[in-house]
From TrEMBL:
Domain named Nudix hydrolase: residues: 8-133
Domain of life assignment: Bacteria
Cofactor(s) needed for function: Mg(2+)
Sorted UniProt keywords: Hydrolase
PROSITE patterns registered for this protein in UniProt: NUDIX
Identification of the protein by name: NUDIX domain-containing protein
Length: 163
């Protein structure tokens, strides 16, 4: 049985940024994950989730977010290792500054929303982005199977926003 005192929690953020029917994505060039991703990253103690999202967007894209809207929560749970990674997902279309084309995380570009389904985005991230673009709040949890090194279960709960 897992000792609840030894659970490893990590917090991350993801920010979907839209302008003129285009989405800003980064062609990631580091780590074990490649493809297009929205800006975002690890929440550093003692930052708030909101502060962290604004910092990550600025570091990765050069944009200063003027307004940021909380959209949903997502995460990965590995019961065998006692790990839970929580992603706080945001949306913004209110920002200033110029996009850094080639940052440390990868190349930033605007992509037409009309081509969203064709873009090379990890399916789980694409599902989260789609809910944001459809103005739905959500919780999306993936349970990881350590033995098969793959997801065992995925749970998605969505709601149309009340406002």
């Amino acid at each position: 049985m897992l000792d609840m005192k030894n659970i490893n929690y990590k917090f991350w953020n993801l920010v979907v940024i839209v302008k003129n029917q285009k989405i800003l994505l980064i062609r990631r060039n580091k780590g074990d994950f490649f493809g297009l991703v929205p800006p975002g990253g690890k929440i550093q103690f003692p930052e708030t989730f909101h502060e962290s999202a604004k910092r990550e967007v600025f570091e990765e894209t050069g944009l200063t977010l003027n307004n940021l809207q909380l959209e949903g929560l997502s995460g990965y749970i590995n019961e065998k290792k006692g790990e839970q990674f929580v992603y706080v997902d945001y949306y913004s279309d209110d920002f200033s500054g110029e996009v850094i084309k080639n940052g440390e995380e990868g190349e930033c570009n605007w992509y037409p929303l009309s081509e969203f389904e064709k873009l090379e985005i990890h399916p789980d991230i694409k599902k989260r982005i789609k809910n944001i673009l459809e103005n739905k709040s959500y919780e999306y949890q993936i349970f990881w199977d350590e033995e098969t090194n793959s997801p065992s279960t995925k749970k998605l709960i969505t709601n149309d926003k009340m406002r």
